[in-house]
Amino acid sequence: MLIKLTGGTVYDPASGVDGRQQDIYIQDGCIVKKPAEDIQVGKEYDLKGKVVMSGAIDMHTHIGGGKGNIARTLLPEDHRNDPVMRSDITRSGCGHAMPSTFVTGYRYAEMGYTTGFEPALLPINARQAHMEMADIPILDKGGYVMLGSDDYLLRLLTAKKDQKAINDYVAWTMQSAKAIGVKVVNPGGINAFKFNQRKLDLDEQNTHYGVTPRDILRVLATAVKEIGVPHPLHVHGCNLGVPGNMQTTLDTIQGIGGLPMHLTHIQFHSYGTEGDFKFSSGAAQIAEAINKNKNITIDVGQVLFGQTVTASGDSMRQHANHKHASPNKWVTMDIECDAGCGVVPFKYKDQNFVNALQWAIGLETFLLVDDPWRIFLTTDHPNGAPFTCYPHLIRLLMDRSFRNEVLSTIHPEAQKMTTLASIGREYTLQEIAIMTRAGAAKLIGLKDRGGLSPGNWADITVYTDNSDRQLMFEKPNYVFKDGQLVVVDGKVVSTKWGTTHVVKPDFDPSVEKGLKDYFDRYLTMKLGNFKISDDEITEDGRGSITVHPLKGDMA
Amino acid sequence: MTEITEVPSPFCGIGTDDLTIKVDGVALKVIENGCAVNTPAFEQSITDTSPRVNGKEVSLGVAIATAAALLKDTRLPVIGGCATDVNGMRGLLALADRCGAVVDNMNFTGARNNFLALQDSGWMNTTLAEVKNRCDLLLVVGTDLEAFAPRFFERYLWNKEAMFLDDTSHREVVYLGKAPSGDASTSPTGQKAQVFECATDGLPEVVAVLRALVKGLPIRSTSVCGILVADLLAIADKLKAAKYSVVTWAAGALAYAQAELTVQTLSEMIKDINNQNTRCSGLPLGGKEGDQTANQVCGWTTGYPARTRFSCGYPEYDPFLNDTNLILANGEADALVWVQAFNVNAVPPVTVLPTIVVGRSGMTFAKEPDVFIPVGTPGIDHAGHAYRMDNVVAIRLKKLRDSGLPSTAQVLNAIEQAL
């Protein structure tokens, strides 16, 4: 059936369309050119006066994998405050900080999101992450496989293996884990924690391997580039949450030597040590460095006030942060000579100096980074706040008077330590569309997603323009996923299953020789049983795999 | 006849995946790397292949229609057992959501000791590969580890090589509470485990004193439940001196009231040791017959572990009140669905209520259920996924033979569709 969306005001940065009235045609799940006159329109939606964007893409959200399920299990009291009833078309579940998988899909869709990427796919836990994501309806999904604290890589580095050996291992791991990107978390630090190191600076050696985070970042960023993965190395840096870590972040940017690198939840890595509380904003210096270094992209990891839970691969820093657990219960795990995790519930309070300043630092970062194609809207769900806070965050970015109103209510000392009140910038609709759609698709290398020109998949969100941007983004009029109408007036009206986005970089098959020997000697699983096969994702008839081109293929 | 190698087991909980199995028609024989738990579980023969209604053989379609009819107007059905693979649990939870059922994993009362401790204060845990490569001291609390998992020591302690230990035979093993039933814990060089026995219900006191000693608190008694305080002090000193000690227990073996407090004391003791400039981790044992699988899938689907009800239209977790046996005893339920694809001996509780059993072929009953649908076993009759004891690792189960038996998921999805 041919569907016509008539007369909407379209914001499609991918094709340079900034608020122009135009019609969109959908056929067989995709956006098509205006068809010949004699082809009948099966269904028409009058979108005059409406704002039309492609479906939003969350490029960093913890929606699948073991630590998320630990977070769920840890917090029954949080779920009890937000029970979600079953309906004729939707499953029951729970919401708030770490929603159940079905509710995750519904609530994302109800905000106009159609895709989400799990940023921390542990190779050994990737199977679980994919199984959880397979139970998230409507959304497309994908993951970045986590490397950098795995003993295999560190052994390669200690043995001074060449870059090709690293590249083969990275490509092999991406294929085994079904990933679309590579992430590193506290490079080498999760591993160092297992050797009882409690902190690891950029140039500090792992006591066993003698390798530094700087070494790890360099070889992994090089590998990602050389094997042609579009998404740059996704970096959760050293010293998360530590006052003064701004300098570590600046050194990390310098240290990568111009290679493409994405610094994630940079808010948590932008702290100075000034002021009476020895905690200050480093957002201005960080933003200046981002503006200058075009090889760097970031997402913010905005903190918003309220109860949430932090779930991270960074067992070292999460162990240190457990002192702030609220409620006071927390989990860390060392995992399979592969990685680790830490789960710590947090309650961010606007009358707590540190929390209030974290809030301001995130917003300063958003407002001081010039290029919306290199910054992405995240709360690092659920770590800074649950993803359901996005409409509120968008209002903070687009509405200066609202922002200043909130600012005037936070901890008074924090107000004195931020330049936020003096920043006049208000994000435009086009800039929001870049950050949450076109930019994200470009950054991850998604073919035929994140845009509204013919040839794209018909992931489309329609809003009613409203000067209260929170209300506007909370409740889209329509959301289409692959051309299917899934949401009307902010409520799910039908469901479907999305695809899993991956890339398949090549590797020299001989890489498995060394790996097989390593698995047999030291790990607990046979190599053949470790690799995830395509049919594990597709066999139930719901899932599918979409392979995106590598960098070399693009041309 | 074929031989299949590198077969993973869903039965032992420790993720052995090096079995070699000979397949002759539908007969299986474990010819390499079997054990007292896995071998009989794999070799269990198929008896029933057709479903029964009231004891009479019927087609699968009739059995499914009858099951759906029995469930149609129920107010509070209970789905017990919950012993299946990931897809089976998905089907089970979809059915429970539709008919407002209580979902209760058969091992939950044991696992509850862990969940209550986790949900009250948390823990610091590790996984099997870390044990294999790092553990220099293993403290086994209240559990006969080799009876639980016969190949644990061979695979994870006495492995020839470890990345971070010069000689694995130098690892120390200490048993607290229960003595081992065999010699698996004796090192390859003949070093025997240290054993400090006490009555199982003495463990709360013993563990509390051990934690106090770890924290350096003075203890006036000289013995506790038959164990010398000096011996406990020596254990505390070993834990503090070790580089990467591991404390393990089986929640189900702590069979006394409020055993969650023992798990909590152990877990808090582990945190204390990590605050004394060394590393120590917990390793809760479990993972048998899909118990971790049930809790994981229920966890992501509902937010809660697998003792959760859907009777209000949304999931409600109660680790005490949603107990199958309690609900049956109180006369609250009006139907029982029993799902057990792994173990023919784990039969449903006997009840006068309408009973539907989706069970492993070979199951026999004291009282014939209204509907019995024999299903294939994940990892034998069909591929699937199951979680190991350490919860992080899901293993990919293989299909070994063509038995024609449907999977749990197929049966439960069909019942849900028929509703």
Description:
The complex is a heterodimer of chains A (555) and B (419). In chain A, strands 6, 9, 10, 11, 12, 13, 16, 20, 25 and 26 form a 10-stranded parallel β-sheet that branches. In chain A, strands 1, 2, 3, 4, 5, 21, 22, 23 and 24 form a 9-stranded mixed β-sheet that branches. Chain A has a single domain, classed as Alpha-Beta Barrel (TIM Barrel), CATH 3.20.20.140. In chain A, a hairpin with an 8-residue loop joins β7 (83-84) and β8 (93-94). In chain A, α6 (163-177) crosses α8 (213-226), α9 (245-255) runs parallel beside α10 and α10 packs parallel to α12. Helix content of chain A is 34%, strand content 22%. Chain A starts with a strand and ends with a helix. Chain A is of the alpha/beta class. Chain B has 2 domains: 47-107 and 289-381 and 405-418, 3-Layer(aba) Sandwich (Rossmann fold), CATH 3.40.50; 111-285, Dimethylsulfoxide Reductase, domain 2. Chain B has helices at 38-43, 60-72, 86-99, 108-121, 128-134, 145-148, 152-156, 203-214, 229-241, 260-274, 291-302, 324-329, 408-418, and strands at 2-7, 19-24, 27-32, 52-53, 56-57, 77-83, 102-104, 122-125, 137-141, 172-177, 194-197, 223-224, 227-228, 244-250, 279-285, 307-309, 316-317, 335-340, 355-360, 371-375, 384-387, 394-397. The radius of gyration of chain B is 23 Å and the shape is globular. In chain B, β6, α3 and β7 (102-104) form a beta-alpha-beta unit. The model of chain B has no long low-confidence stretch (mean pLDDT 97). The longest helix of chain B is centred in the middle third of the chain and has 15 residues, at 260-274. Chain B has 419 residues and is α/β, with parallel strands linked by helices. The chains are: A alpha/beta (555), B alpha/beta (419). Chains A and B meet through α1, β7, β8, α4 and β18 of A and α3, α4, β8, α5 and α11 of B.
